Amino acid sequence: MSQASASIPATSSPAALHPLPSYLQEDKLGPWGNYLQQVDRVIPHLGSLARWAETLKRPKRILIVDVPIHMDDGTVAHFEGYRVQHNVSRGPGKGGVRFHQDVTLSEVMALSAWMSVKNAAVNVPYGGAKGGIRVDPKKLSRGELERMTRRYTSEIGIIIGPNKDIPAPDVNTNEQIMAWMMDTYSMNTGSTATGVVTGKPIDLGGSLGRREATGRGVFTVGCEAAQHIGMEISGARVAVQGFGNVGGVAGKLFAAAGARVVAVQDHGGTIYREAGLDVPSLLRHVEETGSVGGFPGAEVIAKDAFWDVDCDILIPAALEQQITTANAGRIKARMIIEGANGPTTPAADDILQERNILVLPDVIANAGGVTVSYFEWVQDFSSFFWDEDEINARLVKIMKHAFAAVWGVSQDQKVSLRTATFIVACKRILHTRELRGLYP
Ligand code: NAD
């Protein structure tokens, strides 16, 4: 511990002196509760930095906004929106925006915290943030969606910006929504600010390779881990839950490498084919119909039967808390690659570890998206754009390097890859916390 830090009062004073705000007490079993359990598991490994660990358990800034819009039928509808900046010790906040009917504040808090950990794990110079609106966007017209996106952007405009907090796509948000966010922020501030969001269309300062980046990262760490455990990708059977930006691209890359994608589940159905699904055709089917349901030539199986599918690699790439004590004991895969954020509960994690199933945790496995978002932000600032080969090569290099470091810690300290990733990342976050000190 440095001399300077030794004289700073530790944040580990008695709990009575710093009671938790009410909104941090509510959610014991949800995503935020899961995140807190993950933090508790890492604290014993943080050495002297553990004195700052309370920082990880309290989001820095939470904004809840009312988002009123004119509906096409002449009524006014109100939606609840959030932007949470969990930690900005290492740089501006960074994290996606989710439009989903089940979005809650505690979910957004957890997602923002996982962004802090993820960004530190791959060592991009960002803190963690996340946003969301509690809405089913599939029920809105295009005009309503645009008005809601623009009003939300105006409402959170006081805390976002290219040097403050940079949103990106997440579930049910895409390049077009990023374009509207960028335009709204630019109109409000009086100059074109391409760097305020990432995941934009290429013609608006987006980056080549960003759309595929998260899936490419999932594939990259999957291949690295497969080497460590002696698994051949060619011929491996893969099951994917969620066939959107992350799951669709990951499935495509695994299939292109010779793997057999035997089962896919999305919000509209669960399909199975032992010989392997034709992934390019399935992607076209999803683009045309919105779901994997009704894909010709595939067997339809029950939603819950997805977890019993005989496979080597399982990729949850939909929502949180999908792998629980109810199904962790049934999973047949040797390796789980978390494309989604928070898909596995801590209790399920323990079951998987006991069963010797290797889990590549979200905070490293899906970090490819934010890594190329970082490249996009750098390109926007310099107004100099790289070609796709360069972007993919840099992405793969960062992912391999980060994964190797995490693998090493996990072997040395005999901890799961999740705890190893939290060790690497939380040390980075808390070290910057200590260097910066407390102001005033
Ligand atoms: P998306 O909207 O493109 O796709 C989501 C997919 O999940 C769709 O196929 C949808 O049908 C499916 N889904 C929704 N509800 C489901 C349910 N109840 N059961 C089964 N499937 C369901 O979203 P995305 O960007 O691919 O994000 C998926 C996950 O990956 C999220 O957890 C997100 O936070 C995470 N993630 C995304 C990125 C990114 O760059 N897009 C980066 C890191 C992590």
Chain-averaged pLDDT: 95
Strand order of the largest sheet: 9-8-7-6-10-11-12
Secondary-structure-based class equals alpha/beta
Hetero groups: nicotinamide-adenine-dinucleotide
Task: Please tell me the CATH architecture of the domain at 58-192 by its name.
Answer: 3-Layer(aba) Sandwich
CATH class placement of the domain at 58-192: Alpha Beta
CATH superfamily of the domain at 58-192: Leucine Dehydrogenase, chain A, domain 1
Silhouette = globular
Description of the structure:
Helix content is 42%, strand content 16%. It is of the alpha/beta class. Among the domains are: 58-192, Leucine Dehydrogenase, chain A, domain 1 (Rossmann fold, 3-Layer(aba) Sandwich); 213-344, NAD(P)-binding Rossmann-like Domain (Rossmann fold), CATH 3.40.50.720. The protein binds nicotinamide-adenine-dinucleotide. Nicotinamide-adenine-dinucleotide binds at residues 169-172, 214, 241-247, 265-267, 317-319, 339-341, 366, 369.
